[in-house]
Structure prediction request, 1018 residues.
Amino acid sequence: MIALAYVVMMGLVALLSPAIAGTKPLVCSYQGKLYFPALGYFNRSWENAVFRKDRFRNVYPAKLREKDPASWAIWPLVYQDPYRRVRDGEWPDQPANPTRDEGRPNRFNLFGTNRAGVDVFAQMVHGARTALLVGFVSMGIATTIGVIVGATAGFFGGWIDTALSRLIEVVMCVPSLVLILALIAVLERPTIWHLMAVLGVTGWTGIARLTRAEFLRLKELDYVVAARAIGVGRTAIMFRHLMRNAMAPVLVPVTFGIASAILTESALSFLGFGAPPPNPSWGALLNDGRGNQQMWWLIVFPGVAIFLTVLAYNLIGEGLQESTDPRLAGAE
Amino acid sequence: MRFLRDAEQRPPRNSGWASRQIPRTGAEWLAVFVLMLSAFGCDGGPAVDEASASSEAAATTEGPTTKAEDGNEPSIETDADAPFVLGDLIKPFDPPPTLEALEASKTWVDSPVVDAMARLRKQKQSEPPLVSVEQALAMKNESEEANQKILSALSVLPSEEGGRVDYDATINRSFQQDLRSTNPVLVSSMSESEIASMIAFALFGFDWAMNPFASADSVVSWRTSEDRMVDLVVLRDDLTWSDGKPITARDVEFSYRLIMSSAVPVPAMRAGTSDLQLVKAYDDRTVAFFHKKSSAVNVWSLNFTIVPEHVYADSVAEDPTLRKSAHHIQQEKKPVVGGPYGLESHVRGQEVVLARRESFYKHNGKQVREIPYFKQIRYRILEDQNTSLLALKSGDLDETLLGPEQWTTQTSGDDFYRNNTKVRGEESTFFYVCWNLKSPFFDDLRVRRAMAHAMNYEEMLDDLCFGLFGRSTGIFDPQSWAYPKEPPQLLEYDLDRAEDLLDEAGWGDSDGDGIRDKEINGRVTPFEFSLIVSNKPDRIAICNLLRENLESIGVLCRIAPLEAAVLQERSFQRNFQAMMAGWGAGADPYISNNIYATPGERNYGSYSNAEVDRLFAEAEREFDREKRAEMYGRIHHLIYADQPYMFLYTRSSFYAFNKQLRGYRFSPRGAFSYSPGFGSIWRLLP
Prediction:
């Protein structure tokens, strides 16, 4: 339950990251119009061009006042940016972020800063978006492929089953980490989406096997036989009668898969093969901290975040397993 | 040469050379490409990269290339079925048939033959130590003054008889990349040239001020014809290969022919030798170098790797790669060498051990040269700079390179100073962002100047470089004689100016998406480019600062960190829009010719300025150093004004040494890669 609460909280943090830490106003009124510059954190083109044209240079508080004294704005909770260092005089009474190895946690930088003076807390908040995105998108792809392949194999049986089972075995042998490294070397401009695609395309085998097993079991049950006897079509049986019942156990490998995708992304970023800079990522922070152990805050905070998130997903997975696996239920 | 290891890629062409008293010359120092530079980068790059420095080196092909006027660019691709011809790239040339005829045909001027150690001893006498060794070892290197004191005391040399030198000592060193080959003629990376400098026989060298000379360890006399078309060198008669055979002038001629054979894969080495018309041995001890043109810089083509003729003469025809046949594999394990050290063992991925060669300093039982100070040199292969530092602190290494961050934060405590001390020296290596002038973004001077105005230099130097590096003011180093008397007016950080320049150049925001764009060939092109950089956190941090500034003025910069080898390949193919990297110092400014002139082989950004081309050509023909300096000064100004590069910072070298070591001194190429360089370092008797 705690795990679930934690996961939901992480989801909220990721979703609301620009409202928690950022240097762009959530809402502002400028020269009589309402703008939402913080959306620029999600997608650069959503940030209104008027601010660039008026030479704001990403420093909103002072420029808003200077260019339009009548303007007002609602600011994020913490005035810190995941992409750049906050400098002197941007925010009243807030000094420039310390650089080098002097950025230990303080009132303005809750989790400290890295060598370039970029706030660690802001990077972690925005990095949560990366972590969760990787987990959900890659497992989304994997689930789609896995369920379709598994369902087809289990439902039709025969040579289709044999062929798909062999395919599953082949894909299981593909080393996804190596594939990602190779892909990064080949691609002109690797992004985090490539990584998710590779994780998704190689990670569906466990899901497919479970779905297939469930289908093999379920299709022999009386209610399916009955449905077939009264002439229900194959598609209807597959999706209406079988799929729903087979889904519960499939959730288990999906949750574990999310945990492992988050770990993989962190590992790649740690090795320097993750999303290109300056995209914030927990693994990239760890990589930053590797060079100098005196900067413990670069290791402890992202390390704890990765640990807790993976733990939470694994606990949820285990809980699901317990509630869906009849053998475990009987044992109690 | 260690210093190279870090950073630069040096042209292998010269690679061989010497270490101890054997001088190394030339070309090697040519500009070194610091692509990857190591740790040092200002980027603070400590840790990780330091190590890599060597790897960076991979620059295999560096080397000055001459623009061969006759256009005989050697190519490695040859018909596999064609019979092997030794020296097939040498153009027909008729040298005087006998030595007497040659001597009679020219007027001769003596060129310097120098004992590098003797020269250094003399220099040391004029520089009394500022503090005693004990005081120096008790000091912490926390200021420039302390650094000077420590250096002056610890650069002490033993007397000629050896004094308190521990001749049985082993020195433990490290490099970051394993060797591909132990054959000095096949050098292609920093670690290989490091090893080559220890084991290869060399005729020439240069001192800490980059003055070239012939080494008294190998050469009796060196004369140059007055028209500078011929160099005549007489070798000593007490030189011996490690298998006991004498080293003769025939080996020099053979090595030249070997390098000038199209089937032998040494294109980098060939870049230097292709400046030569011919190398001819007139007898066992006399060898003449014929040049293609009369130039002030001919001396830099003289030093190529010399290998034994009796080992390779027959085997090269059957295996021109020098690596595949059984005989050559045997040579890889135990090469026949002529330098002060010989290869003892090489365990892949772990270590390389060199041992002092008795036949180097003894001839017929009599000592004829100074004994190299170490009995054994053990190199461990450590890819990570942090690992090297830990090994140093625990006493497993005797010296290592430090990154600026390690220098500032990890080497101030007692755990470091218990066994070690550290010193720094200026180094002529600068880092830059190279713009590809063929790309539609950077062909406009106004855009390049706008870029230069959009970099926060102060924050880069003070914060990202730990305040240890200076700002680069152009292609030559202020310490070099080629540097102009009046430095150029630097472009300062000024985002308003940058925006104005971009507006002027037509990069407005026509579609209102917040990103500047311009109509190019009828299509609206957003100003979005990728900046390639080697995958080192410190360097990425600097790129990131540039990216942040550019983004605030509506220019998108995508940083693409690449592996060293990939970065190098992309630069050779000119397949990039912008690249952050570094250049090391060349021995002589003429070597920059192939970086900035048209169509220079290493002119990766395709920069071209007719006036610069003309000045380079003219300066090469001019013999008066004052006048040459003036021309190079003009070039410096012209290039700064054209901004084909954004000049970032110049790097220093940082080294940590065990407290038992003495005798280190810095050149613009670091502590090791000159003569005597490593050869002057010794360990105190316990």
